[in-house]
């Protein structure tokens, strides 16, 4: 029996997404996903498949960070784009996200110990919260939809589930958000994500584009200041900022 994808979606998202997708296409996707989970190691675990939707209710969504597909290493993917569970080593792209966050808003690793200050020099800035964990659940709980365009992947095979129907499903998610009147800020990093900008037509929303944070991309993300820009866009619409 095929996995009931729409049945696994939270009710609010299911009601918004279902009218925007073809039933036959959804059935074909469900059949593919069911077979893959039954015959291969697939990430994220099935119970985490729609974690992004579960942690960020539709009515509370204020921002979207769009990734391409889940991490394909053991224990890394847990249903949130760019995020890894607590205790898992922070991947290189996410390290660059945290580096930009530190430059943008001063959120980052702890500052040097004040007791180590040399005589005659000003004391260092106050200690900041450490970023030892790559778990971004606290973003999701504030209304940040951490969405991958493709929601599953075979172990060790990046991009292996691309082109099998997830793109239609997640495009419908973006269209459902675009149909809402309250502002949503779309953070699109890298060429793949930036192509989704055309799905955002409602002038109530804001699209912030930048290069991908991957270390393989030497420019385009550093200095883009996405976090302060997102908070400004929310403030301009009378919405509370996100505590990044």
Automatic annotation (TrEMBL):
Transmembrane segments: none
Localization in the cell: Cytoplasm
InterPro entries: UDG_fam1, Ura-DNA_Glyclase_AS, Uracil-DNA_glycosylase-like, Uracil-DNA_glycosylase-like_sf
Family matches, as NCBIfam families: PRK05254.1-1
Name of the protein in its database record: Uracil-DNA glycosylase
Biological process according to GO: base-excision repair, AP site formation via deaminated base removal
Stated family: Belongs to the uracil-DNA glycosylase (UDG) superfamily. UNG family.
Disordered: region residues: 109-132
Catalytic residues identified in the record: 69
Domain Uracil-DNA glycosylase-like: residue ranges: 54-234
Main location (coarse class): cytoplasm
Compositional bias annotation for Pro residues: 120-129
Organism: Pilimelia terevasa
Gene Ontology cellular-component terms listed: cytoplasm
Role noted for this protein: Excises uracil residues from the DNA which can arise as a result of misincorporation of dUMP residues by DNA polymerase or due to deamination of cytosine.
GO molecular function: uracil DNA N-glycosylase activity
Enzyme Commission code(s) on record: 3.2.2.27
